[in-house]
């Protein structure tokens, strides 16, 4: 029987944080940040913070997922996200199985649903899924009983990346509400952008998306964001600048004239950082192209929190895995 | 002398503005009388409370036979057509092999005769192999029964080829059927470009992709004096261009599908591949324009654009699944829901878009009518009957239909082809 996919069925809601919402996580899947309430977002962030404190106190191995097997199903190449999920599961004492395949090899043989069903039949109760096709994890959630964490689907969402970006901002600033966050670069093809937009706006931040007109998707203003094509105008009025990755092949598809021209208008360099607020935070979900989205002096400079993002990603993923497992037990 | 009496229905004949309660008497496959008080018949169909009209005609149906029998066969598609109220369908040539030669066209006709359900007219390819490069054997295709030429769901990218096709097809008085989507603006697209494609992170296909080709081909029809038929129009701009072209006397016709009336791009939010269609489901303003076009007669016909796909092809990642809905068996109740129930069309108007409209497009002058002496292709509809759509019960071999579970009103109860009752609905 097809089951209702919990987060995507909800229409976009931009309700302000509610202090009366019950602080209970009861979702079986984490498919996206669209539709999550502020209370739910904070629940994940708080749990991640707890894991981070425990880790700092020397509790590097916890037993939340003892006896549970987590499957990492990566139908699209990934190094950092896959490693992060794998490590997160192990720190919670889960067993892990990894499955990696490129979309093209799958399209010639077994469907990805059959692959996932086989892995589920081996006793895997939680699946981390990365896929190049938007909606693929939602499709799995309809066909499987396992809990699904979306580790990036096509150009749709990447909820744990959005959460770790938000966590990193909250860690440095102590809050999200009232901050202005700029997402710079390829918004059209960015799953990170969509997850950031949902999470940040739900938590009360103001979001500006900034990039070439060819890489801003239509009607994105309806998600409650401001659109700009002028980074120099945006930089001085933001608290956080999140530099999204540009894929070189986009240039060949005529989304912009050249990497050189892109960097000139939308790259973050030392001059632009000097015109930013003193306490600006520079984020990048990576992998970064030095000299394109940002220059090395910015990437390695004192406003950059890029490596904090990577560290925090681990605790966010531990929180996601633990919460989903707990929800499946009730 | 086989005699069939269809008794006591509301007889609607769009070909001569007939709308009266009465009996339809059929002898030897032809309509012989419409009146009352007939008693002598070999077979009686009780049509009390029902609408009796000419059999529906579908201008473009994916038959999939030969070559893709895992999706559909001629036997199953014609059985589905009958269950949907159709007595004639025109088969898209995008089979394997493609119907770009006389032999393939004759196979389509022969398979339909073997199936002995309803009539299937072949549509011939415009270009060999649907490659868009050289013209198929249009003359021989016409001689083998092709009523029109089309490259199915492949847009003819070259305006030059389209011009030559229109000029050449004019010799045989055949129209070119166009799937109006600019290939460069729709490459890799999954859904309508707009708010929901942004929300869902799915590649969009802008309305402009349709409007550009509609504009181009109207201009070419005017230039050449050829005739175009635009399949499955889906945008406001396209309907407005057709309206203006018709006012100027250009030979253009168009149709829409029920799913483009009943659904919008917001329905993509479940990532359910049954909603992935080409052209894509549009936003509500476009849907309203299609209905306005049906009301004022700009839109000539309604087509199921039946596109059956085996479940292994449709039950996959959205980017990989083919476009289309197996829609023959759900067309009527969706027309009732979107057009009759809101009071946008009357029953005689709806029936004209399913009979005389498509007959004109296909150049079938004596079809789609209940005129005395006409072939007795008759459909009996219960307009009140409520039922729940269940694709597992389709006659079609495929199940890809997004209306599963919808409770709808209006059901085909019986269909006669050439005076022979070929379909009767079950008791449920």
Question: Can you characterise this structure?
Answer:
The complex is a heterodimer of chains A (330) and B (428). Chain A has two domains: 171 residues, Rossmann fold, CATH 3.40.50; 151 residues, Aspartate/ornithine carbamoyltransferase (Rossmann fold, 3-Layer(aba) Sandwich). Chain A has 14 helices and nine strands. In chain A, the strands form two sheets. Chain A has a five-stranded parallel sheet with strand order 7-6-5-8-9. In chain B, α6 links the parallel β11 and β12. In chain B, strands 1, 2, 3, 4, 5, 16, 17 and 18 form an eight-stranded mixed sheet that branches. A five-stranded parallel sheet of chain B has the order 9-10-13-14-15. Chain B has a three-stranded parallel sheet with strand order 6-7-8. Chain B is of the alpha/beta class. The model of chain B has no long low-confidence stretch (mean pLDDT 97). Chain B is globular and about 60 Å long. Chain B has 14 helices and 18 strands. At the A-B interface, α6 of A face α6 of B.
Can I get a quick summary?
The complex is a heterodimer of chains A (330) and B (428). With 330 residues, chain A is of the alpha/beta class.
Shape estimate of chain A: globular
Report how far apart the termini of chain A are.
21 Å
Overall number of strands of chain A: 9
Query: Domains counted in the coordinates of chain A: how many?
Result: 2
CATH architecture of the largest domain in chain B: Alpha-Beta Barrel
Give the uncertain stretches of chain B in residue-range form. none
Q: Structural class per helix/strand content of chain B? A: alpha/beta
pLDDT average of chain B, as an integer? Answer: 97
Roughly what percent helix of chain B? 25-40%
Radius of gyration of chain B: 20 Å
Low-confidence stretches of chain A: 1-18
CATH fold title of the largest domain in chain B:
TIM Barrel
Which key phrases capture this entry?
heterodimer; A: 330 residues; alpha/beta; Rossmann fold; 2 domains; five-stranded parallel beta sheet; four-stranded parallel beta sheet; disordered N terminus; B: 428 residues; Urease, subunit C, domain 1; TIM Barrel; eight-stranded mixed beta sheet; 18 strands; globular
């Amino acid at each position: 029987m097809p089951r209702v996919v919990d987060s995507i069925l909800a229409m976009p809601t931009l309700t302000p944080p509610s202090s009366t919402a019950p602080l209970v996580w009861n979702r079986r899947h984490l498919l996206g940040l669209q539709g999550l309430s502020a209370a739910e977002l904070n629940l994940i962030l708080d749990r991640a913070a707890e894991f981070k404190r425990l880790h700092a106190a020397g509790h590097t191995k916890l037993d939340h997922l003892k006896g549970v097997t987590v499957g990492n199903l990566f139908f699209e190449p990934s190094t950092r996200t896959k490693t992060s999920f794998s490590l997160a599961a192990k720190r919670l004492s889960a067993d892990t199985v990894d499955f990696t395949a490129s979309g093209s090899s799958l399209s010639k043989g077994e469907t990805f649903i059959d692959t996932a069903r086989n892995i589920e039949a081996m006793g895997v109760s939680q699946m981390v899924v990365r896929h190049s096709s938007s909606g693929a994890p939602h499709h799995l959630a309809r066909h499987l009983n396992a809990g699904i964490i979306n580790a990036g689907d096509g150009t749709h969402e990447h909820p744990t990346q959005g959460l770790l970006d938000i966590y990193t901002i909250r860690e440095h600033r102590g809050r999200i509400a009232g901050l202005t966050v700029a997402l710079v670069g390829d918004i059209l093809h960015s799953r990170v952008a969509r997850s950031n937009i949902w999470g940040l706006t739900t938590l009360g931040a103001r979001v500006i998306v900034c990039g070439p007109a060819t890489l801003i998707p239509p009607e994105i203003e309806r998600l409650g964001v401001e659109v700009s094509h002028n980074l120099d105008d945006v930089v001085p009025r933001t608290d956080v600048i999140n530099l999204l990755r540009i894929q070189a092949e986009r240039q060949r598809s005529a989304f912009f004239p050249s990497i050189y021209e892109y960097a000139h208008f939308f790259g973050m360099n030392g001059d632009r950082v000097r015109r930013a607020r003193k306490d600006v935070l520079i984020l990048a979900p990576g992998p970064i192209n030095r000299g394109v989205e940002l220059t090395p002096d910015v990437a390695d400079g004192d406003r950059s929190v890029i490596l904090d993002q990577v560290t925090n990603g681990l605790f966010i993923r531990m929180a996601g895995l633990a919460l989903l497992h707990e929800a499946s037990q009730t | 002398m086989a005699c069939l009496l269809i008794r006591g229905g509301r007889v609607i004949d769009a070909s001569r503005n007939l709308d009266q309660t009465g009996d339809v008497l059929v002898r030897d496959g032809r309509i012989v009388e419409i009146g009352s008080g007939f008693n002598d018949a070999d077979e009686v169909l009780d049509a009390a409370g029902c609408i009796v009209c000419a059999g529906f005609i579908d201008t473009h149906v994916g038959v999939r036979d030969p070559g893709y029998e895992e999706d559909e066969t001629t036997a199953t598609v014609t059985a589905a057509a009958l269950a949907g109220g159709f007595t004639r369908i025109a088969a898209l040539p995008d089979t394997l092999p493609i119907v770009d030669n006389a032999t393939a066209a004759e196979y389509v006709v022969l398979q339909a005769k073997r199936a002995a359900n309803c009539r299937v007219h072949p549509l011939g390819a415009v270009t060999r192999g649907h490659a868009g490069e050289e013209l198929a054997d249009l003359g021989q295709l016409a001689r083998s029964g092709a009523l029109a030429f089309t490259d199915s769901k492949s847009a003819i990218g070259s305006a030059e080829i389209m011009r030559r096709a229109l000029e050449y097809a004019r010799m045989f008085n055949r129209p070119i059927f166009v799937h109006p989507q600019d290939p460069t603006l729709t490459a890799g697209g999954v859904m309508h470009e707009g708010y929901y494609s942004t929300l869902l992170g799915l590649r969009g296909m802008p309305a402009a992709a349709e409007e550009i080709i509609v504009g181009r081909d109207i201009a070419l029809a005017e230039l050449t004096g050829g005739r175009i038929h635009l399949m499955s129009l889906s945008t406001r701009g396209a309907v407005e261009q057709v309206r203006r072209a018709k006012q100027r006397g250009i030979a253009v016709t168009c149709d829409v599908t029920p799913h483009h009336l009943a659904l919008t791009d917001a329905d993509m939010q479940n990532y359910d591949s049954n909603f992935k269609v080409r052209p894509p489901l549009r936003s509500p303003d476009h849907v309203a324009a299609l209905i306005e076009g049906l009301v004022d007669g700009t839109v000539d016909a309604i087509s199921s654009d039946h596109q059956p796909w085996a479940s292994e092809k449709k039950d996959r990642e959205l980017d990989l699944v083919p476009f289309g809905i197996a829609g023959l068996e759900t067309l009527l109740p969706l027309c009732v829901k979107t057009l009759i129930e809101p009071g946008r069309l009357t029953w005689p108007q709806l029936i004209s878009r399913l009979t005389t409209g498509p007959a004109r497009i296909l150049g079938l002058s004596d079809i789609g009518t209940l005129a005395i002496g006409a072939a007795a292709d008759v459909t009996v509809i219960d307009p009140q009957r409520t039922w729940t759509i269940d694709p597992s019960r389709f006659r079609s071999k495929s199940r890809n239909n997004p209306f599963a579970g919808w409770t709808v009103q209006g059901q085909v109860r019986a269909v006669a082809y050439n005076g022979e009752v070929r379909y009767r609905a079950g008791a449920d």
